[in-house]
Amino acid sequence: MAQVYVRNPLKPRTWPRFQAPLWIDVLVFVAFIGLVAGLVGAASRWARPLTPSGSIDLSPWSLPRYAGLSTMRMAIAYILSLVFSIAYARIAVANRRAERIMIPILDILQSVPILSFLPGVVLALIALFPNSQIGLELAAIVLIFTSQAWNLAFSFHQSLTTIPNELSDAASIYRLNFWQRFTRLELPFGTIPLVWNSMMSWAGGWFFLMAAEQLTLGKQSFQLPGLGSYLQVAANAGNTGALLLGLGTLVVVIVLLDRFLWRPLIAWSDRFKVESTAGAAAPESLVLRQLGRSRLINWIGRHVALPIGRRLDGLFGKPPAPGQAGPDVAPRAPGHLLRRAAGWLLAVLAIGVLIVALVDAIRLFAQVTPGQWGDIVVAAAATLLRTTLALALAVLWTVPVGVAIGLSPTWSQRAQPLVQIFASIPALAIFPALLVFFLKIPGGLNIASVALMLLGTQWYVLFNVIAGAMAIPEDLREAAVVYKLRGWRRWRSLILPAIFPFLVTGMITASGGAWNASIVSEYVTFGGHTYTTVGLGATIASSAAGGAYAVLLASTITMAAVVVTVNRLFWRRLYRIAEQRYHLD
Question: Read out DSSP for 271-317?
């Protein structure tokens, strides 16, 4: 078995004796109090009576409050996305039979655009909470969740399927149970891709924030206070000053998150890099270094985090009894019949719900005329062409740039904040300005729609390529230097095989992002005029605005069918190649 060096993910935490100055603990305490106060204030706002529309104040003094509210919604949606993604991917990998169903479902979910989620989500949550703002807030969080979760789920699933065989064999030899395997092997191995895809998920959430906070349902419009609503109102009013202030505030929030959250996480996650020798240069973070010396953080670690970790290990990490089946064989507990009965009951309920939904869908499909079906097919072909072109353009520049950033810690430190800023700026806020230019050239909205799809898809590929390049072990880089691999030989023998699983994951999620972006790139309202082009996104957007739910459902099902078909015939085959051939073995 080859020697593998993992940068101490299992080493017990040692608490430093040299402590940071007292002012660092004061800042940590003030930040904690501010967080609690913000959550309490947001909870009180959620309890207010439901109003169909709210007024958005475009004064600069309202921007800090709007930024805090939007960041809170993003954070809640991200936590839900992270938990969902880890659980979903782990269940899919644990059961190959279930994986054949769960991964296509994930393909469908990532291909269904936000506007198709919007009517059902808003109606259902408002019905659940008719007398408060909770329903609207939860609707916005769910819509942001749909722009974050699928990317994380695909990323963690790719990590689990590409774990080196020698590490899996070691886990089996040491008889690690489910919890030990998850915490000692699977989660550490997938940490670097999860961190980088988390940044991409946040960028995707910012991208669709305007749609999530400006909810339109038929003739009713629901506005939630936040940066997304602020940018939407400023763009609709043509208030360039307010629009620039809103974008500037968004950039400030992104920079602060990079400095105090993402950069420390990148430096922390480098310890989980799988390699035979320690890397020559590791990412650094001043914030992480100072927090590691904080008295308050160390006290929380010793008296809160460490006991909780030990309790979880004691609860889930019990070793199998002598003679008991190994980790790959499920033991037959006394209550296995009850669990099987509960599983069958849940399956029957799920099938019943699907039958009811199918009957309702058939009723709506009956209202769609053959001519409308023909238009939907033509629109699907046009959007497929645009998404393919946008993805090809994205790959052309993101692969060399992402590799250059990922292989250089210096460039990673410098370029990471810029990449996050550009990836997080809502394209809907700047698209009207681009549209003025594109409408004056041949091709008009067709070229503009490809450009907007490119703005929404290229970052999925870039972040995954950066993560893949950063995960290349240092010993493989040194071997490439020893064997004098340069130019195309280095790319063919080292870089492309190493980043291939990450690149495939990025292209799959970027493809779904391009189809999602079609609903805002093919149907644009600007200056009191609506500009449309032939495409499935335009069909979905126009039917949602006009309340034509039969055409909306037919268009959404067609979009999901096209995306799943392309994934099954093309992307999934590449995914299997990455899983089977490109392991770090």
Answer: GG-EESS--SS----HHHHHHHT-HHHHHHIIIIIHHHHHHHHHHH-
Domain 66-273+357-581's class?
Answer: mainly alpha
Question: How many Cβ atoms are within 10 Å of 23's Cβ, its own excluded?
Answer: 8
State both tokens at 390: 């946008």
Whether 497 and 582 have beta carbons less than 8 Å apart is answered as yes
Q: Which residues pair with 6 in a beta bridge?
A: 274
Q: What is the pLDDT of residue 111?
A: 67
User: Cβ(505)–Cβ(155) under 8 Å?
Assistant: yes
Which tokens is 442 given? 């041949």
* pLDDT, mean of residues 156-171: 84
Burial class, 517, CB count within 10 angstroms (exposed 0-12 / middle 13-18 / buried 19+):
buried
Q: What is the pLDDT of residue 423?
A: 72
CA 452 to chain CA centroid, nearest Å: 19
pLDDT > 70 in the chain, percent: 78
Q: 153 and 509 in contact (C-beta within 8 Å)? A: no
pLDDT of residue 459: 84
The model's pLDDT over 372-394, given as tens digits with 9 standing for 90+, comes to 888 888 998 999 999 999 999 99
* Burial of 80 from C-beta contacts in 10 A (0-12 / 13-18 / 19+): middle
**How far from each other are the two terminal CA atoms of the chain, in whole angstroms?**
10
Higher pLDDT, 327 or 48: 48
Residues 6+ apart with CB under 8 A from 410: 281
Does position 574 have pLDDT exceeding 70, yes or no?
yes
Answer whether 388's CB lies under 8 Å from 218's CB: no
Neighbours of 374 (CB within 10 A): 10
- Paired strand residues for 221: 216
Pair 510, 453: CB distance under 8 Å: no
> Would you kindly state where each structural domain of the chain is located, as residue ranges?
66-273+357-581, 285-317
Are 402 and 462 in contact, with CB atoms under 8 Å apart? yes
Note the pLDDT of residue 573.
82
- The region of weakest confidence among 12-21, 261-270, 437-446 is 12-21
Q: Rounded to the nearest 10 degrees, how much is the dihedral formed by the CA atoms of 143, 145, 146, 151? A: 160
Which pairing describes strands 5-6 and 274-275: parallel, antiparallel, or unpaired? antiparallel
Spatial distance between the Cα atoms of 163 and 187, rounded to a whole number of angstroms: 11
Reading the block at residue 138, the tokens are 């939860």
Average pLDDT rounded to a whole number, residues 20-46:
75
- The pair of three-digit structure tokens given for residue 187, joined into one six-digit string: 């989660």
* pLDDT of 13 over the 80 cut: no
Q: CA-CA distance, 111 to 396, in Å (whole number)?
A: 23
Rounded-to-integer distance, Cα 317 and Cα 466, Å: 34
- Percent of the chain surpassing pLDDT 90: 5
Torsion angles phi and psi, residue 526, rounded to 5: -150, 130
Instruction: Report the pLDDT averaged over residues 457-465.
Output: 86
221 three-state secondary structure: strand
**241-258 average pLDDT score:** 85
DSSP state of 270: G
